[in-house]
Every structure is written in C-alpha cells, then in structure tokens.
C-alpha cells in the first residue's frame, strides 16, 4: 500500500499513515531504512499487520 505520514512524534517514535481512506498507526522501528525518523507529509509504501486491540498497524515502511 502507499500513503502519507500524517503525524509523527519524534520523542515517542509513534506516528500514523493515511492510506486507503484510513489512518494506520506505526512505530519508528517499522521504518526499513533504520533511520527512526520520518517527516510529516512524506510519501511512503507500507504493509499491514494485526496490531493491539484488534486494529491494523503499518509495518515495513519505505520512504518513496
């Protein structure tokens, strides 16, 4: 899937990606380049995996 980073908290390493009309949370450790940083508004490609509390979360995030 592809989407845009809508939020990112540098201190906590948590953010969200807008893809297919929904927001998916992610943690910075899911960034494939190992940087642990991503800018709000960045275009990314990502996969989904089951997360906590029955929600889907973004993983395998690659900056485009």
Report what the structure shows.
With 64 residues, the protein is an all-beta fold. It has a single domain (2-63), classed as Nucleic acid-binding proteins (OB fold (Dihydrolipoamide Acetyltransferase, E2P), Beta Barrel), CATH 2.40.50.140. Helices cover 0% and strands 56% of the residues. The chain is built from no helices and 5 strands. It has a 5-stranded antiparallel beta sheet, with no helix packed on it.
Topology of this protein?
Elements: E1 2-9, E2 14-19, E3 22-27, E4 43-50, E5 56-63
Antiparallel strand pairs: 1-2, 1-4, 2-3, 4-5
Let me know the CATH homologous superfamily. Nucleic acid-binding proteins
Rounded radius of gyration (Å):
10 Å
- In CATH, the architecture is Beta Barrel
- Give unreliable regions as ranges: none
- Beta-strand segment tally: 5
Mean pLDDT: 96
User: What sort of overall outline do the alpha carbons produce when their principal axes are compared?
Assistant: globular
- Enumerate the strands of the largest sheet in spatial order, edge to edge or round the barrel: 3-2-1-4-5
Q: Which structural class matches the secondary elements?
A: mainly beta
By CATH, the topology is OB fold (Dihydrolipoamide Acetyltransferase, E2P)
Q: Which CATH top level class fits?
A: Mainly Beta
Largest sheet: 5 strands, antiparallel
Helix content: under 10%
Number of discrete helical segments:
0
**How far apart are the termini?**
12 Å
Listing every helix as H and every strand as E from the N terminus to the C terminus, the arrangement reads: EEEEE
Strand content: over 45%
């Amino acid at each position: 899937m592809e989407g845009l980073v809508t939020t990112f908290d540098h201190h906590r390493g948590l953010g969200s990606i807008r893809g297919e009309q929904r927001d998916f949370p992610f943690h910075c450790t899911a960034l494939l380049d190992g940087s642990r940083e991503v800018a709000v508004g960045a275009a990314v490609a990502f996969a989904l995996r089951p997360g906590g509390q029955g929600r889907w979360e973004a993983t395998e995030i690659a900056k485009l």
